[in-house]
Write a structure and sequence with these properties.
elongated
């Protein structure tokens, strides 16, 4: 969970300007008015990552589509339980 939050944080920081954040959120399917509200938030980066702003848009399906694997998928098949 922490790793996914950190990845979302990297995306949010990468979108430096408000207009970039709004455009990217609209690309992800957020309504324009709501994208403007979310993109123009004054919350800190880490707080924004844990709010519905990014947990709904940069969800696990989005991260998987970007080619990122879940750690549970990597470790679980190889783990041996005795």
């Amino acid at each position: 969970e922490w790793v996914r939050s950190r990845i979302r944080l990297c995306y949010w920081i990468q979108w430096k300007q408000v207009k970039t954040r709004v455009k990217q959120l609209e690309k992800l399917g957020v309504k324009p008015y709501q994208a403007y509200q979310w993109g123009n938030t004054r919350k800190g980066h880490w707080r924004t990552v844990h709010s519905p702003i990014l947990t709904r848009t940069l969800n696990n399906a989005f991260l998987k589509k970007q080619g990122l694997l879940c750690l549970k998928e990597i470790v679980a098949p190889k783990a041996v339980y005795v």
